Amino acid sequence: MNNNKIITGIISVATVFALTACSGNDTPTTQESQGDSTTNTEMNNDTSSSHHGMNHSGSGEVPTDLTVAENPKYPVGSQAVIHADHMEGMDGAVATIAGAYNTTVYTVSYTPTTGGKKVENHKWVIHEEIDNHHHESYKAGDEVTLNADHMEGMHGAHTTIDSAETTTVYMVNYKDTKTGEEVMNHKWLTEEELAPVK
Q1: 15-to-2, 6, 51 alpha-carbon distances in Å
Q2: CA proximity to 144, closest of 130, 134, 154, 155
Q3: pLDDT tens readout for residues 13-41
Q4: How far is CA 85 from CA 6, 50, 91, 185, in A?
Q5: What is the pTM of this model?
Q6: For the domain bounded by 67-196, which CATH number is listed?
Q7: Domains of the chain, residue spans
């Protein structure tokens, strides 16, 4: 009898260890699979889709040295129609202006710090979002480091300036035309990418 109890106890303990080991191994494998899947998806995206993974909404915080536009074409609180396709669901949306600033905007090409394909001609990064920026604007071909975090893998990335333009940029709120999602404090749109509401 005692031997049977001992054997039964040993089998029970062994079963518990086996089940624990199985469940312990399954969880990381699932997480690793999901992580690999995400990485592969990101890496397989064509570089021409330079805004894949862009953060729709932002915090509304802006660099402290960014100059507020005194008389922007679209004042804060006014509305304008977006004519840009940085992201799906943006083009044609009616935006409410959340901020208007005078700066130099850049299109940039960079390899994300998280890995994956190079992002080409990303719109937009502003002068104040460049690490250790100097007073003068950069020009096409200059190499800089980004402080912006509009997209995953952007912050800290070394980048090449593709183009530069001094203009008014806008931070906007709008409703995604595809999903109906409210997008808050999206950065950035230029004046040329907005039109009056008819």
Answers
A1: 20, 14, 50
A2: 130
A3: 444 434 333 333 433 333 333 333 333 33
A4: 71, 11, 5, 16
A5: 0.71
A6: 2.30.30.1210
A7: 1-44, 67-196
The overall longest dimension of the chain from CA atoms, in Å, is 93
Q: The tokens of 74 are what?
A: 């679209």
* Amino acid at the residue 4: N
| Residue 77 Rama label (left phi>0; alpha psi -120 to 50; beta) | left
Tokens coding 38: 């995400």
Average pLDDT of the chain, as a whole number:
79
Q: Tokens standing for 63? A: 């660099």
- Which residues, in sequence order, are CB contacts of 134 under 8 Å at separation 6+? none
pLDDT digits (tens, 9 = 90+) for 169-180: 999 999 999 999
